[in-house]
Amino acid sequence: MNLASSSAVAPVPPVLPPPPVSSSELAAPVQTEPAPTVMTQQGAMGSSSSLVSRGLISRETTNVIASDAITDIRLESTNSLTSQTNVPVTFGQVFAVGALLPSNGLTGRLDDGTQVPLQVDVKATHPDGSVRHAVISAVVPSLGNAYVRTMSLIKSNAAAAGSAVTPANALNNGFTTSVQASINGVQYTASADSLLRQGARMTWLSGAVANEWHVSAPLVTSSGVAHPHLTARFAIRWYDSIKKARVDVTVENNWAYEAAPQNLTYDAKVTVGGVPVYTKPGMTHYHHARWRKLFWWGGVEPEVNVKHNTAYLIQTKAVPNYDQTIAVAETSLAKAKTGWVGAKTEPMGIGEAASYMPQTGGRDDIGLLPGWATRYLLSMDKRAKEVTLGTGTLAGSWSSHYRDKKTDRPISIIDYPYMTLLGNATDTRNPATGQREAFPACAASTLCTNPNKHDAAHQPSLAYVPYLVTGDYYYLEELQFWTSFNLLSPNPGYRGYAKGLVYRDQVRAQAWNLRTLAQAAYITPDNDRLKGHYNQIMSNNLDWYSNTFLNPATSNPLGVLTSGSALVYSSKLATSPWQDDFFTAALGYTLDLGFTKADALLKWKTKFVVERMAGEGACWIGATMYSFKVRASTSSPIYSTIAEAYRESDPVYGSMACGSAGMLTALGLKPGEMLGYASNATGYPSNMQPALAYGARSGGAIGQKAWEIFAARSVKPDYSKAPQFAIIPR
Which of these, 641, 584, 701, 594, lies nearest to 45 by C-alpha position? Predict the structure, then answer.
């Protein structure tokens, strides 16, 4: 049961910080943060105080939100010396079901009572028609140096009126931007202002505050010869009232069916307003990869950090229920800042992600969300945000980006059901068209080497949180590129062609494929053709798992996943509980995101994780063993009880009392310690925690008992530096 939605939160009067400092006070800037309040919750599992004492949930703290506000944001000046006026801000905001209708208006109210007009560009809606995700823009009148202002988002009865402007407003004010690539002495160019004058554009934001236009074209020579692979994409966000523009420049080498794909080396240059703002000589641009840079036209970049309300983001279920009592370690935030330098932050770098994704072991990027994103969500610290957005930007550096020239969008297996990166060319022949859907061969193997190796089984969620909090189209497409790549990679027959089934892969790959697909289906705008594609593929997968594991003829009593390569340990008699837990957590998150078909499946699936902790004959300290035997032979059925699985996995569990001195000695454990690096934030008990958190909600009384046992153990990790597995029951 979802406690956060089971009762209303008592409204609390807002605590207002002091007004912005005057010019005479700038020598001694004042900083303020909203005071926290405890969220009171009551539900079938008990009051929040009871649950805290029992370890079922942590005590949640949040900003004090005005009683008439949906949520709030904080606007943090990152300029410690100078106050700013007319500060443009645009951010992504996710809303809980029913909180805001598209017909409603939204007004910003600053902590001193000042009303700020907001432009709300609705992108995605919930099934009930209420707003799920929107991009919100404003121009804040003033922001003192080193100052934090709170802006409440107040719902009104009618959407605000306001006229959009055309690119002519920017062009008439002198806007220019271009990108150049010099290849073997030949210069190729694309000009954003020229493309805007031609008229073909996509509008992403439209209104009285901000307008954003997207244009793209191949880079061409002075004589008009287009480069076959390189394309420039510009997103120009124009704030008409202050005559400033944010310029988003992306260069792609991404066409799916262009002949002779290859790495390209060139001297790159971006010019904004006639001034070179970025140069990169000798850049090697990998095949099916892209790079991006941001600039400002018409003045300096606004120095403001938009800080979302963490508790509200979690309440919406758009992100998992991370333990908000965790204080992210200052050392990890400082390291994020000092470590964000060098080649890894430049085009074709990979930020904080693992360049070689198949690398095994505990890693910061593995989980429903990666470590850097969870540090950001729990701290809203600018340093963590820079790393999160930066690594999301650099998600373009892997050769996993295939754009369809026919649609100008990330390619879809619904359009090309026989397309694949694996298998023989003959496997790609589409009998309906008679055409092979294999991608063109590389120009030469030496021209298609990318040191960044992608892998579905160890793939982090790179772009979802960046898109959620910024509303930047680049991040949306990154999420879609990775989703499409995961779907097109397997042999067409293995995935059921256009069905996009993921069950044939490793269990952890099934987990992360399901997570990424769910995120894309959830957040992709309603008017995007890929929305329907992803929702259909999501439905196909949930149907397959439900038809297989909820069918008595093909199910098993343990709730253990057996599809794909699940049973590959101990001569194919055992599974890896930690991989199975990844899948359970991904399934629980899928249900959080609104895919109700996952409900019954999750109730079955959580049996395996909760019974390993609290089932009859189970011994909780061994619940996180590396491999867990679940059948006697490859032709035998799955064991009928968890007790039998324990005894057959290790005789110690059948011969000694659970937690006895003899057992601890035999297993090399301390009292209160679980197997598998229990004190490590990425150890097997940590891997188990998200699945167990979902099991506490879906697993009934035994689920609650399992969580209580888990919460009561004495050897636990310190999540302050790596909170990606610090998920608790809702």
Answer: 701
Residue of 88, 86, 94 whose CA lies nearest to 126? 94
Q: CA 265 to CA 446: how far, in whole Å?
A: 13
**512: helix, strand or coil:** helix
Say which residues have a Cβ less than 8 Å from residue 587's Cβ, sequence separation at least 6: 514, 598, 601, 602, 605, 694
Cβ 217 vs Cβ 190: under 8 Å: yes
Determine phi and psi for 34, rounding to 5 degrees: -60, 145
Question: Tens digit of pLDDT for each residue in 140-175?
Answer: 999 999 999 999 999 988 766 678 899 999 999 999
232: tokens are 């420039």
Cβ–Cβ contacts within 10 Å for residue 8, how many?
9
Question: Are 85 and 141 within 8 A, CB to CB?
Answer: yes
User: 419 vs 254, 259, 415, 503, 537, CA distance in Å?
Assistant: 16, 16, 9, 18, 15
Q: Strand, coil or helix: what is 243?
A: coil
For 63, 254, 290, 404, 464, the CA distances from 263, given in Å and listed in that order, are 48, 11, 11, 19, 27
Whether residue 14 has pLDDT greater than 50: no
SS3 at position 248: strand
- Say if residues 379 and 307 touch (Cβ distance below 8 Å): no
- Phi and psi for 508 in degrees, rounded to 5? -65, -35
pLDDT tens by residue, 631-686: 999 999 999 999 999 999 999 998 999 999 999 999 999 999 999 999 999 999 99
Torsion of CA 691, 696, 697, 699, to 10 degrees: 90
348: left (phi over 0), alpha (psi -120 to 50) or beta: left
- DSSP one-letter code for 336: H
Is the Cβ–Cβ distance between 345 and 353 less than 8 Å?
A: no
Instruction: Assess whether pLDDT exceeds 90 at residue 1.
Output: no
Query: Per-residue pLDDT averaged across 419-433, rounded?
Result: 89
Q: What is the mean pLDDT of the chain?
A: 90
- What is the crossing angle of helices 473-488 and 507-523, to 10°? 140
Sign of CA dihedral 146, 149, 323, 38: positive
* DSSP letter string, 6-42: TSPPPP----PPPPPPPGGGTTS-----PPEEEPP-E
Q: C-alpha 561: how far from its chain's center? A: 25
Cross-strand bridge partners of residue 152: 72, 109
> Beta-carbon neighbour count of residue 348 at 10 Å?
22
Number of other residues whose CB lies within 10 A of the CB of residue 339: 13
Residue from 375, 362, 281 nearest 681 by CA: 362
Strand partners, 191: 178
The DSSP symbol for 616 reads: T
pLDDT interval class at 3 (50, 70, 90): very low
Whole-angstrom distance, CA of residue 34 vs CA of residue 23: 23
Q: Is 229 helix (H, G, I), strand (E, B) or coil?
A: strand
Give the residue among 96, 93, 97 at the shortest CA–CA distance from 108. 93
Whole-number Å distance between alpha carbons of 461 and 368? 7
pTM for the full predicted model: 0.91
Using alpha carbons, select from 533, 487, 547 the residue that is nearest to residue 513: 487
Average pLDDT over residues 315-338: 97
